[in-house]
Hints:
Elements: E1 2-7, E2 17-24, E3 27-28, H1 30-38, H2 42-48, E4 59-63, E5 72-80, H3 86-101, E6 107-110, H4 122-137, E7 156-161, H5 167-192, H6 200-213, E8 217-222, H7 224-229, H8 233-239, E9 247-254, E10 263-267, E11 269-273, H9 293-308, E12 313-323, E13 334-337, E14 343-346, H10 353-364, E15 371-376, H11 380-386, E16 391-395, H12 398-411, E17 415-417, E18 435-436, H13 444-453, E19 461-465, E20 471-472, E21 478-479, H14 484-493
Parallel strand pairs: 1-7, 2-5, 2-6, 6-7, 10-12, 10-15, 11-12, 14-18, 15-19, 16-17
Antiparallel strand pairs: 2-3, 4-5, 8-9, 9-12, 13-14, 16-19, 20-21
Helix pairs in contact: 3-4, 4-5, 5-9, 8-10, 9-14, 12-14
Bound molecules: ligand BES, manganese (II) ion (MN) and zinc ion.
Amino acid sequence: MEYTVKSGSPEKQRIGCVVAGVYLSRKLSPSAKILDKASGGLISNLVRRGELEGDLGGTLLLHNVENTLCDRVLLIGCGKEKDINTKNFREINKVLASTLNASGATEVTSYLTELPVKGKDLSWKIQQSIEAIDEKLYKFNQLKSDQKPPRRPLRKIVFSVSGRGQLADGEEAVRKGMAISTGILLAKDLANLPGNICTPTYLARQAQNMQKQYPKTKVSVKGEKEIEALGMGAFMSVSKGSRQEGKLITIEYKGGEKSQKPIVLVGKGVTFDSGGISLKPGASMDDMKYDMCGASSVLGALSACAEMQLPLNIVGIVPAVENMPDGIASKPGDIVTSMSGTTIEILNTDAEGRLILCDALSYAEKFKPDVVIDIATLTGACIVALGAHPAGVMGNHNPLVQDLIKAGKTSGDRCWELPLWDDYQEQLDSNFADVANIGGKGAGTITAGCFLSRFTKKYHWAHLDIAGVAWKSGHNKGATGRPVSLLVQYIVDQLPKS
Ligand code: BES
Ligand code: MN
Ligand code: ZN
């Protein structure tokens, strides 16, 4: 989709459609009022007769409105004016996208940028609009033989700004919004690909493509030989159970000064999680192709940051494996030595995410990080605790956790803290090794966090458990691209204030 900004009055737009809001009950937004006046009261008449109340999501599409230069006027119900928040602002923009994608209008001007959202400025509204519209129009059809695009799809959306003085800010917001949205799109596409296509090798190749696209990025890929040589016994204990070679992918984006410590993102890249010898039950096992959503969100966030050319240093580390039950796969009771030297008793081969992450987290030390954030579809227990709305967040440095929670609120891609108290650590006691890879009954998300915390003592660290938010199951099954938006917001918030 092409996005731009423009200032000017709605009746003067020579375009396929002009979009304006109507609040409950039958209250016209400023632009709807202007169109109403131009047309001699057409809109207020229709609204009075009950054509549109202003309920959230209601629509009224008008053609050839007198004294306007546009082909159509789309009025969208916005609910109560004072109740517009992040969630329904996005919802209203999705209604714009779905209604107009099937209308024949290919270029439209949106005056929804004038809707009041408490505490949010024009830039935020433009960015959120782009994310919401792209999300609504996203389809994953690459693997269908019969791809039917709409005959006249929406091609261009112009966001109205209130004066020429706002054009520069608006254009900057469009650039940012499109960069983030492209990152989300990349994350979704990678995640939606099936396990037989999106293998560790495939992920590595996608990362290498980023290096071609963005000159400030450097990508390195290590195979199992090198991973073994690094002493990553925990990583290898998972990877050896699959015929697909495991990869350790590192993407360095160097946008800042050389001396500037990087933000390091570590993404769990299990391209399929069968559970290994502790095999998962068959029902919806196909969902486990999404067990690389930490990895895809790291690639998405990095490509967004590179696209925006942020003056920061950012490193993405992706341990990528397939968790399978081969003849030489790890067995319950096996003990392995991690890169840090900590020995781990693998009591359940299905708790594989933490095994690859712990070695990747030790590896992260070499970048002398400012902070390290890992992102993982780590525990089913996180879905039990928090459902599908926030990701779980834990960490060893409260300011970092609070920054992530704040970035979640701003972006609408929220996370919620769980208590990473020492009290839980003893659940990981092992009779035979330094630590067990499962914590038994109770607080499964926290004990997974506790496990990782043993490998992150040398830096400020936070962990995002995205098991509940990375994809939607059921009827509209598909990746969400979360938490790309949260990560990019967090990173943008770290920019020195000018
Ligand atoms: N990838 C799964 C976690 C998961 C399960 C995410 C379902 C989303 C939906 C992870 O590797 C796993 O299997 N975790 C186990 C841990 C347990 C063995 C301690 C789990 O959650 O059951
Ligand atoms: Mn598992
Ligand atoms: Zn897993």
